[in-house]
Amino acid sequence: MKFTSLRLAAAVCVLAAACTEAGDTGADSDEPKDPIEPVVYEPDPYPSTYAPLTQETVAVTNATILDGVGGQIDGGTLVFSAGRITALGPDAAVPDGAAVIDAQGRWVTPGIIDVHSHLGVYPSPGLNAHSEGNEATSPVTAEVWAEHSVWPQDDGFNAARAGGVTTLTILPGSANLFGGRGVTLRNVPGRTVQDMKFPGAPYVLKMACGENPKRVYSNSGPSTRMANVAGYRAAWQKARDYKQKWDDYVEASGEGEEQDPPSRDFELDTLMGVLNGEIKVQMHCYRADDIGQVLDLMKEFDYQVSAFHHAVEAYKVADKLRDNGVCAAMWADWGGFKAEAYDSIRENIPMVHAAGACALIHSDDAFGVQRLNQEIAKALGDGNRAGLNISKADAWRWVSSNPAKAVGVDGETGSLEVGKRADVVIWSADPFSTYAVADRVYVDGAAVYDRADPALQAVSDFMLGQPAREAN
Q1: Number of domains present in the structure of the chain
Q2: What is the average per-residue pLDDT within 104-131?
Q3: What is the CA radius of gyration of the chain?
Q4: What's the confidence (pLDDT) of residue 22?
Q5: CB-based contact 375:367 (threshold 8 Å)
Q6: What is the C-alpha separation between 205 and 281, in angstroms, rounded?
Q7: How far is Cα 350 from Cα 379, in angstroms, rounded to an integer?
Q8: 385 inside domain
Q9: Burial status of residue 419 (CB atoms within 10 A of its CB: 0-12, 13-18, 19 or more)
Q10: Which residues contact 292 (CB under 8 A, 6 or more apart)?
């Protein structure tokens, strides 16, 4: 039956060709067809509704300024207006009408950026009802988005702001090979997550290697590292095939051919976004050998890992990170709490930095996020005791310009440079001191925290009335 159908189809083709030869050229004209507008899907269906709070024109004078890209200005002036930095330097002019803050004896830095936070998806209070970070139902859940779990009322955002954190990337957990999309937020009070969403920031994809996926799925698989890699490869191959279908469809539309677009697959949309360079991969990975395996996988499927997270053995492969343009987001001194974290050293971050790779600090913790300036101080002290001689100005990159690069917002924030967003922290003292606290925090030039002003110390609805109950 199938053979007969093919013969019939061939006969029809012969007749059609004969008709063309006889002069009926209308249906098969060689004239190029007009392009057809292809059907495309909206890459950001939940756009940011963030709007800056009341912005000021401010001049901070007589400050020790760390610019976030390795520079230090003693006795400097920083000026910002309409949400952007307008002047910076030892002799920067103070514009008429500016609010002047004399920062004599104090330090000024870019706002801290935490690229690995679970605030909002594992909020306070820590109840099972609030556990929203791991969709631990399948090894591949690239279709889920962390922003759909974020609870803006998590008081952890307010506590982080008091620690100088102005930007956070909220990630799914690490149960899965592909955990889902993460979202980058401005650390401002909001009623919905979209009120906090960093406008124009690229999405990120959380992936995990090593012990976590094989432990969570030990009964159904993957239960070994080799099965982890097999799972990545299968998913990336599906994504490549899916991308090819969309590429072919768009090309055909450009040639004027009408055809139905491929069927949408939300999981593969995310993976295709990575292959297209639109979504940045944040890879949970501890051991050096795992990092090497993932770098090989990255080359096999032609995508880019933006940063390895936790990466307690990054110091062993710092040259590979540097040569492949991949960052390492690390703790200052966490380690030893499971087998793959055993071979950690306190000099990890400064050694990666000294090798010329992109090193940064993350929190992964609702308490650690409040004291990331102290995490820098610990790592810097350990590195310099090992003879690396890294300056404080260089070390501040670890919480500013390097994390901004890792999540794709370095064109907007992460450093104190003219034209950048005015994300600024005024510290009571040298921020590398355990005694230093944030006096005042600005996001886009708007004061969002002031240690001396309760009106600028946001309290979530959940926390309202807590002090009164404690007093009783």
Answers
A1: 1
A2: 95
A3: 26
A4: 40
A5: no
A6: 5
A7: 7
A8: yes
A9: exposed
A10: 317, 320
Neighbours of 193 (CB within 10 A): 23
DSSP symbols for 308-334: EEE-TTGGGGHHHHHHHT-EEEE-SS-
Q: Which domain holds residue 195?
A: 111-415
First to last CA, the chain: 87
276 assigned to some structural domain: yes
Residue with tokens 């030869």: 21
Asked whether residue 349 is assigned to any structural domain, the reply reads yes
The model's pTM: 0.92
Instruction: Give the percent of the chain with pLDDT over 90.
Output: 88
CA distance 292 to 209: 11
DSSP state, 112?
E
Contact 192, 49 (CB under 8 A): yes
Q: Check residue 30 and give its pLDDT.
A: 67
d(CA 163, CA 297): 38
pLDDT in tens, 227-238: 999 999 999 999
Query: Does residue 104 fall inside a structural domain?
Result: no
**Cα 320 to chain centroid, rounded:** 21
The CATH number that applies at residue 262 is 3.20.20.140
Assign 212 to helix, strand or coil.
helix
